Amino acid sequence: MEVDMECPIAPPWLELPPEITTTILQKLGPIEILKNADKVCTAWSRLCHEPAIWRVIKMQNAGADFGDREDDLERMCRQAVDRSWGQVIEISLEYFGSDNLLNYIAERSAQLKRLRLVCSYNVSSEGLSAAVKEFPLLEELHLYYISITKEAIETIGRSCRALKSFKLNNQICRHPYIEYDEEAIAIAQNMPELHHLQLFGNKMTNEGLEALLNGCPHLESLDLRQCLNVHLVGNVGNRCFQQIKHLRHPQDTPSEDYGLDAEIHDFESFDEDYPSGVSDIDLISDADDYYEFSDASNYSDDDDEMFIES
């Protein structure tokens, strides 16, 4: 007696052309790929090891079921960098990252063009300075709530001569004794090719602004929101309006396009002898140690659009 044996039907995703599957995988993000997609089937696993999948690496610490949290994220980031085989061009890390991780990335990512660090509190000025020396092609460096020295800014400018877009964004602290132009002057003296600059919540004065206008003649967009010591009046104000195509004023509302906490913090109890050179970021206490892991960011990146050349 002949037995009619039905052949098992292949899952529909196996019928997809490789280029479509690759597009789908790229939309998942590194964490989802490494945790799940890589284990679906042999065909997907093979695609998950293709360097093209890892040209853009965006990872966020947004809380979940990992035991070691940041250690697990750093391990996965290293895996992602390894799989890129030196072809990664963009990396974005939110709420995690360290000097050791940056060093690992720097040793394996000579083609990197865009680096974004958000609340990477374990990244130091020294660690960032060492890493950027290995990124000669870097065009965009966007830093949120990361404390770096003017010496680090100088190193960034000297090492990344192709840098076109720079963001150094601080939490806003209104305090009458804090005026600090050193960061703006370091940018002006070492980043002459900048086209886009965002210094949200910076403590520079009109002196620092004038240095930027002199030292960065190619600036097209300048975001001065919540730079409370800057006053767009007189000669420096006129120069801003004439030289800058897209200007965000100090008093402009910190709208949703900024993405991070734009609340202004008053520190009325500070001693009058508080050093004038302190950075806003030095006034921030570490937030909760509890975060969640997620590929999807809770923070809008829309504000990046005005800083990316077409």
From TrEMBL:
<dbReference type="InterPro" id="IPR032675">
    <property type="entry name" value="LRR_dom_sf"/>
</dbReference>
<dbReference type="InterPro" id="IPR006553">
    <property type="entry name" value="Leu-rich_rpt_Cys-con_subtyp"/>
</dbReference>
<protein>
    <submittedName>
        <fullName>F-box/LRR-repeat protein 23</fullName>
    </submittedName>
</protein>
<dbReference type="InterPro" id="IPR036047">
    <property type="entry name" value="F-box-like_dom_sf"/>
</dbReference>
<dbReference type="Pfam" id="PF12937">
    <property type="entry name" value="F-box-like"/>
</dbReference>
<dbReference type="InterPro" id="IPR055411">
    <property type="entry name" value="LRR_FXL15/At3g58940/PEG3-like"/>
</dbReference>
<dbReference type="Pfam" id="PF24758">
    <property type="entry name" value="LRR_At5g56370"/>
</dbReference>
<feature type="domain" description="F-box">
    <location>
        <begin position="10"/>
        <end position="57"/>
    </location>
</feature>
<dbReference type="InterPro" id="IPR001810">
    <property type="entry name" value="F-box_dom"/>
</dbReference>
